[in-house]
Amino acid sequence: MARPPTAALAGKKGILRVWLSTSVFMLAGEGNFGDVWFPVVAAVAAMETCCPIDGGGAAIPGALMEVCGCPGGGAALTPADFIDLRMDCGCLHSQLTTTVLVHSKGRSQPPKFRILRCNPQLNLSSLDSLKQTCSGVALELKLRKPSEKFCPVQTVGIRCDHPQNADLPRYYSRKEKKPFPIPIVELRRAARDRMKNRLPKRRVPPPKIGLVIKSLVPAAYNVFNARMTVINNLKRLLKVVTVNGCKWCNEIHVGPVGHPFKSCRGSQASQRKGHHEWGKAVLEDIIVPLESYHLYDRLGKRITHEERFSIPRIPAVVELCIQAGVDFPEYPTKRRRKPIIWTGKNEFVDADESELPDPEPESPKPPILTEIPDPEVEPPSSTEETILLAEETLVAWEKMRAGANKLIKMYPVRVCGYCPEVHVGPSGHKAQNCGAHKHQQRNGQHGWQTAVLDDLIPPRYVWHVPDVAQPLQRELRSFYGQAPAVVEICVHAGAEVPEQYKPTMRFDVGIPNSIKEAEMVV
């Protein structure tokens, strides 16, 4: 290990200010300070010009290391110390910057400084790096030798509110099974830990015993009305915002001209060398019409293969809202007032509700919005109305996703791991209509697993167009970001970009003006 440089600290009370750059240093005091990790800011080149290396050593000027009470005081560095310092400054971490002030009390012995090489996060994707850099970082001042003369341990919090660009959503091939939201290994490990620690059994949620959670009934109405608001507003926005759809695959693009990327996976894609054939997109290309079977009794018997045509199918989000408490005369459902009585592992009987008093009159429920027919759709009359319509659509979109995410935590939703089939209920149906990869080996049966929010409401990511006047270039594909189709349409209509979508849209990435400039990017 290289000999640590030293710095003279004059006076009993002083403030040590350090302005250096592109490295992480550790300040190790001899009982006065302790171990401090902090990233520092300035240029090493400036220090090299300010600190000439000579035979007698290099002096750190007061601009870089200033000791209060000793104006112009600096610390002497030997050539070996300065070379080690310049070599350790190779680790760059520009995500977080700060200035650290270290207060000293008591003894006036000159502390020793040593440079510690940083430990970079290896083998991490940009999304993991985003989590590492944008979370709260604590800087602790720990005393190596406890003493009553010095102040107690202090913690300084740093938080990055402007995250960098994140990874684009992964594309799953049709031959690949979807990953489980929680790996099976972790579920088994958690179950073994509960048995080992003899923890009490978890309380059974009301939906598993046939009851409705009354506190989530308003949320169900909000989700349903938000969905109708998004659909009605998108019908109007499509009159002023151009959305293109490929004629051979399900890819869409928001903009006057389709993107030039060779990403078509439809029929005869090899003959077209992956090029898309663009046409006008419709609402169903943006809001994917995922349907599921409507259940009169969510705890009843599973739907068999022979019943697949006799049971109506409705949008999955609507079915989730019905089971959560939304009343539809067209789609009746069974509402229990008392929990069921289990008679076996998979058998139960309904409790006797005849002894219960008459139900109290319920408060008036929120009105239910309806979809506007296509002939009655009118485009926005002005630019201001278009912007307001786009902002209202973004609010309704976030409200629908947030409410649906709250509902699926209490009302289980299943999805096939091989195809997009969704079933709202405790267990999937038995209809053998899966046509995904190697469905013959499963006899057409679905591989049910717990669904996540994107399975219920697919976001349909599209390429973000920074400038509508300039179409995307094929050679600059790695510089462009992506966003959900609804968000991209609202942004083109004049709405502000929500903060949670900026990392994937890559607003902090500079786009080269030409291909030659892109080749010079390291």
From TrEMBL:
Pfam family, one: APO_RNA-bind
Biased composition (Acidic residues): 350-361
GO MF entries: RNA binding
Superkingdom of the source species: Eukaryota
InterPro entries hit by this protein: APO_dom
Span list, region Disordered: 350-382
Residue span, APO domain: 245-330, 415-499
PANTHER family: EUKARYOTIC TRANSLATION INITIATION FACTOR SUI1
Protein name according to UniProt: APO domain-containing protein
Organism: Solanum bulbocastanum
Lineage: Eukaryota, Viridiplantae, Streptophyta, Embryophyta, Tracheophyta
